[in-house]
Amino acid sequence: MYKSVFGQLKANNVIVSRLRYSTRSFSSVSKDYSVGNQTSSVLSKDDVNVNSNDHVAMVLSLPHGVKRVNAPIGSTLLDVAKLNDVNIDGTCAGDLNCSTCHCVLTNSAFNDSVAENPISTSEDDLLESAFSRTPTSRLSCQVKVTNKMKGGIVEFPQAMSKPIEHADVPTTPLFNEPIEIEPMKFKNITKSSINEIFSQFGGDPAIAQQSRVASEVFPFRVNPYVLTQIDWNNIPNDPIYQLNFPQRGMLTDDEYNIMDTALKAGDRKTVRAAVQKAANEIRDGLNPHPAGQRELNVPKAAGEAIPGIQHKYVETCLLFPSESQYCHAYCTYCFRWAQFVGNEGLQFASNDARTLSNYVASQPGLTDILFTGGDPMVMNSAQFSRYLDYVLQIDHISTIRIGTKSLAYWPYKYVTDDDADNMLKQFERIIAAGKSCSIMAHFSHPRELETPVVKEAIRRIRNTGAVIRCQAPIMKYINDSPEVWETMWKEQVKLGMVPYYMFMARDTGPRAYFEVPLVKAYNIFSHAVSRVPGVARTVRGPSMSATPGKVCVVGTPTINGEKTIALKFLQGRNPDWCKELFFAKYDEEAVWVEGHKSLVPAFGQDRFFFESP
């Protein structure tokens, strides 16, 4: 039944969205469970002998030490961690909606756990986005303690060292009156449920199977709210469906047939091995880290790369908290798809807030920090606060940016979720610290702005003093018309947000399916901008986030009889590059400034001015 998979779509009672989150001060009461110089990760004979009939002794291995515990038989490993003051998140409280309670077992304990409680397809799907997944990883909320775990070791790679204290901050005036919003329970719906989704909503089973096959290569995750935004009478052409469900055309015929065959390889274990092998071979050819992200953007200390950071432009640094390496739902065109496919070697992530902030503090030219992922707004307020505690103390940081799709994919985050008030309090903390808070909101289509809950979420965020800036890539099948962008920008301004960027599809993943040529994108942009009021003309684009920097198309002039495409750096690895216009030959098929279907210099030049001889 539908409810068994997706839960109740709406709560029975209607609540009024809070006018303002409360100003009470609260703090975690967890103890600091540091173990000093204790480095042993095994139990002594005496430790093991303290077992009673209803407990077993085991070791919890944490990033900062180990902890010996007596675990109640029948409880989950997440329960054991919480009972022993281990500061592990477990955001969904065992509802199989996240991977934040990820743990790593020894081989024998893993085998025992699988025999007692096999890994479900939902758990397996969620583990794909877990930080530091290993072959013996489980979600601790799904593993019950048994007698066989006596003397065992359980590692929690994401455990935090200290509880978080929340400070009071001043409140700000309301912009307008609240809207009555029915709460909705969040539920992660993963690829194993695609066929059931179609069965419930009346979609074509053949189309469902195509998405199911493609979802083994490209990440898939939706939630009940996203499913309600799709026009199921217009499948597969509905833009929100195209935005969320992997498509047959995202794979070549050969790739599709390979994956389809792998899914029919036999028993579950054989299928899993065949699918992983085939998917990884396809992914290797999809340029998982475009524009030199891994080679050029990651800073180093003592010759070693600093995980979880990208620093491409002097003024701006990207931080990738490990707790934010998934999203409330996944976009099919996502250029960070490699973060979500279960391959740790492809991920940018770190949960070491101190190391991240130490790097930021060492760079006096930095003014802006961008929290990104994944989506940093999958973090709860305590997790996000842990990072803010460090970066808000850095004087030369003036702006905290938060890149998020949550307003479009789960606006309840800021309205009726239990943690809504506390998360909004973090935005106020940023403002109270004398810094700017910019929510970099990803809206891909104007339909994402229509629901009462997203309007109420926008109102509540604006009430904190944060500014919401809107951006999205232009994508075939989703928003490649001037009418869509005109409507979207006008509505964004009406709701008090700032149109910011139209991006081009990056040269990674399924770009060939979604790409829009540069000339067409420029014409769409120009037509749409010409029809919006001046306050909406803050938007820039179409912009390519390429290896040398952000390159924008600014016109298609004819110069000395030669038709050209005029370009300008909005940001560059060398800031001086932003001072010059440069020109490429007019090409209606070109989609990028380098590589595949790329532009070439105009006027007989053999290279662009920023390229090495």
Write the layout of secondary structure elements.
Layout: H1 2-6, E1 15-16, H2 45-49, E2 55-62, E3 65-72, H3 77-83, E4 102-105, H4 107-116, H5 121-127, E5 137-139, E6 153-155, E7 180-181, E8 189-190, H6 194-201, H7 205-214, E9 221-222, H8 224-228, H9 239-244, H10 253-262, H11 268-284, H12 293-296, E10 300-301, E11 304-305, E12 309-313, E13 316-319, H13 353-361, E14 368-371, H14 381-391, E15 399-404, H15 406-409, H16 420-432, E16 436-442, H17 452-462, E17 467-473, H18 482-494, E18 498-503, H19 511-514, H20 518-529, E19 540-545, E20 549-555, E21 558-559, E22 562-572, E23 581-585
Parallel strand pairs: 2-6, 13-14, 14-15, 15-16, 16-17, 17-18, 18-19
Antiparallel strand pairs: 1-7, 2-3, 4-5, 4-6, 8-9, 10-11, 12-13, 19-20, 20-22, 21-22, 22-23
